[in-house]
Predict the structure.
Amino acid sequence: MPSLWKLLTPTMIVESVKDDAIQPDQLKARGVTAIITDLDNTLVPWRHYEISPGVVEWLAKLEVAGIKICIASNTVHTERLQQLADTMRIPFVDRVVKPGTGGFWRSMQKMGSQRENTAVFGDQIFTDMLAGNRMGLTTILLRPPLSKEEFISTQLVRYVENYVIRRLRARGQWPAAEAVAAALEALPDPRSAWVRAVTWGSTLSFLGGLVALWRWKRPR
Ligand SMILES: [Mg+2]
């Protein structure tokens, strides 16, 4: 059983779909012929419908090279997922609950791929990377994520991610990516006063909401 740290460590990090490491020849050199990809903040900004020319170009290159791709997203907005997948002309699986691995198995079934030749591409450590590493797949982290706009709970998870990245870097376990290192330095330190304030503030308001709900539901 690999350590939790190992399960959170991506095989490699890329800054964009234009990165050399995820072009067809490099992927093939690694033995990767199928990709399970995340949607939000990986292929399109969160909640957006526009697909950037860079992504369109990358998908076309993969298709020409015969590398398969399938979207596995945690989104509950299946219509948007379907619409985007149709526009990109790639298959998708829905009702995915990463870091659960069910959606990834279904993606592999759809693509007819095996563990040895499948890679995961996504922007989150605790969903995309963890699920992929649990299955022993090649894991490719997009860093920084496509946009800064995110679901409130994801924003909080980012602080925990930053902590994990710092720990992994201190252990010398974080894959080298010099340009990304600079971007990480610019992120707020999870130990800083305002980050602690935001985390505590949101935790307390969540608990306050639960109490209010309980009082409201309680028969008088
Ligand atoms: Mg994402």
